[in-house]
Amino acid sequence: MSEAGFSTFEQQDGVLVALSGGVDSSVCVQILQQQGFAVQAAVIRFSPAHEGAVEAAQKAAGQLGVPLHVIDAQEEFDRLVVSPFCESYCRGETPNPCIRCNPALKFRLLAEEADRLGIDLIATGHYARVVQDEDGLYRIHRPESEARDQSYMLYRLEQDILKRLVLPLGEFEKDDIREMARESGLACADAPDSMEICFIPDGDYTGFIRARGLTDRSGRFIGPEGQDLGPHKGVASYTVGQRRGLGIALGEPVFVQRILENGDVQLGRAGQEFARRVRLRDWAGPSEMPPAGSYLARVRSAAKPAACRFDGAEWLEFDEPVRAPAPGQSAVLYAGGAVLGGGIIDDFA
User: Fold this and answer.
1) 1 pLDDT more than 60
2) What are the backbone angles phi and psi of residue 308, rounded to the nearest 5°?
3) Which residues of 163-195 are buried (b: 16+ CB within 10 A; e: fewer)?
4) Rounded to whole angstroms, what are the CA distances from 127 to 41, 57, 142, 177?
5) 137 and 259 part of one domain
6) Could you list the active site residues?
7) What is the number of structural domains in the chain?
8) Mind listing the pLDDT tens digit for each residue in 292-322?
9) Which residue did the predictor score with more confidence, 185 or 109?
10) Domain stop point among 183, 208, 238
């Protein structure tokens, strides 16, 4: 195997970096500069909530001495990412908009801008690695930093992007990156990491969805014994595994076990949030779907990879039950640290 990084691209001198102005993307630029690349940067204006990111990128580009290209993608972002996110929530799912945005918009626009500028390579500040495997295919691999692993978020990228993608941060820990930024006097060195969905910075998903004029499904809370506990606030207010904010007092802890097709929210007791089997839809990845066999899989970005068996079509069966797999999230398959692909969780049992 060869890593699609500095040693592979010695003859290349141009790279376009996605620059948000945060510490990760800024140090990504710096590392590539130190490696001898002629670096240019691009920032994408996805929505009105991204004006701060554009300003931060402009400041970082000035400090780093790189040209910055601003790409406006607000209409496409709303159509390809925001609208499907809202519709999914209204169906009672828990979507991850970054999973959809990365292949459909972010990396595509970055590659198109690089093409316009005559630049072969693109780079981002994700904590992951790109490796060319023995079969000649490029795949996302897990990074050195287990704590910062973002390989899950990139599972839907295909060969046209992977073969030109450089991920310098895959070899570092977050503390290393912040220290590099401090040593260079970058203004973003101690900036906090973004934790919320980028286009809903206040975290009020329900309020955001309702402000767009969408109406989610009404229904009732169903208790662990099947009892009717009264109406809930609408399925967009809940997600599988949720414990807080239910407004239900049963004298024992309960959580959202499942959101039913009729809009009812099934509650469960502690211990009932685990599932052994997960069904997938909409498979995507760097190559064809892998054959039936034993793999590792993650059912959310922060989950540890868990041993499972894939039936080669749609079902994963885990050796040990996994906590709260949520429809709308993704399950991603790994083998030897390599991302094989994944799909959207459609059901669980």
Assistant:
1) no
2) -155, 170
3) ebbbbbbbbbbeeebbebbeeeebebbebeeee
4) 18, 19, 8, 11
5) no
6) 101, 198
7) 3
8) 999 999 999 999 999 999 999 999 999 999 9
9) 109
10) 183
CB-CB contact of 323 with 241 (8 Å):
yes
Shared domain check, 149 and 65 = yes
Per-residue pLDDT tens digits for 4-40: 444 444 445 899 999 999 999 999 999 999 999 999 9
Per-chain mean pLDDT for the chain: 93
Q: What is the pLDDT of residue 270?
A: 86
Encode the chain in three state secondary structure.
CEECCCCCCCCCCEEEEECCCCHHHHHHHHHHHHCCCEEEEEEEECCHHHHHHHHHHHHHHHHHCCCEEEEECHHHHHHHHHHHHHHHHHCCCCCCHHHHHHHHHHHHHHHHHHHHHCCCEEECCCCCEEEECCCCCEEEECCCCCCCCCHHHHCCCCHHHHCCEECHHHHCCHHHHHHHHHHCCCCCCCCCCCCCCCCCCCCCHHHHHHHCCCCCCCCEEECCCCCEEEECCCHHHCCCCCCCCCCCCCCCCEEEEEECCCCCEEEEECCCCEEEEEEEEEEECCCCCCCCEEEEEECCCCCCCEEEEECCCCEEEEEEEEECCCECEEEEEEECCEEEEEEEEEEEC
**Which CATH number characterizes residue 251's domain?**
2.30.30
User: 109-129 pLDDT, tens per residue?
Assistant: 999 999 999 999 999 999 999
Same domain, yes or no, for 224 and 301? no
pLDDT for position 12 = 55
